[in-house]
Amino acid sequence: MSQRLQVLFEEEELEEIRQVARRKRLTVAEWVRQALREARSREPSHGVEDKLAALERAVQHDFPTGDVDRMLTEIESGYLGSR
Q1: 3 φ, ψ to 5°?
Q2: Is 16 contained in some domain?
Q3: Domain range holding 44?
Q4: What residues have CB less than 8 Å from 24, skipping those under 6 apart?
Q5: What is the C-alpha to C-alpha distance for residues 59 and 56, in angstroms, rounded to an integer?
Q6: pTM
């Protein structure tokens, strides 16, 4: 179900929005919908607390690790082939 959203702009700002929408061959309403979708997509989907909790869970694990320089050397030798 669609719902209406009323947003008030000063006339000068609304005219700028109209011009942008016109250049993109969109209605003002469609331009606003697209702009809001884009803004929403840039917002983090989880709060800081969720991210910290995930990090705390991750550091509970004890995975084997190696020396970084040795691992990089092994990776590079795989790309170059053994000589």
Answers
A1: -130, 150
A2: yes
A3: 1-59
A4: 31
A5: 5
A6: 0.55
Return the ∠ at Cα 4 (arms to 26 and 21), rounded to 5°. Answer: 15
d(CA 69, CA 40): 41
Q: What is the tally of structural domains in the chain?
A: 1
Task: Tell me whether residue 24 is in a domain.
Answer: yes
Position 83 confidence tier, pLDDT thresholds 50, 70, 90? low
The torsion region of residue 62 among left (phi > 0), alpha (psi -120 to 50) and beta comes to: beta
The two structure tokens encoding residue 45: 């989907």
Contacts of 26 (CB under 8 A, 6+ apart): 34
Q: pLDDT-based confidence at 43, cuts 50/70/90? A: confident
73 domain-assigned: no
Helices 11-23 and 28-42: crossing angle, nearest 10°? Answer: 90
pLDDT tens digits for range 53-80: 998 998 888 877 788 999 899 889 888 8
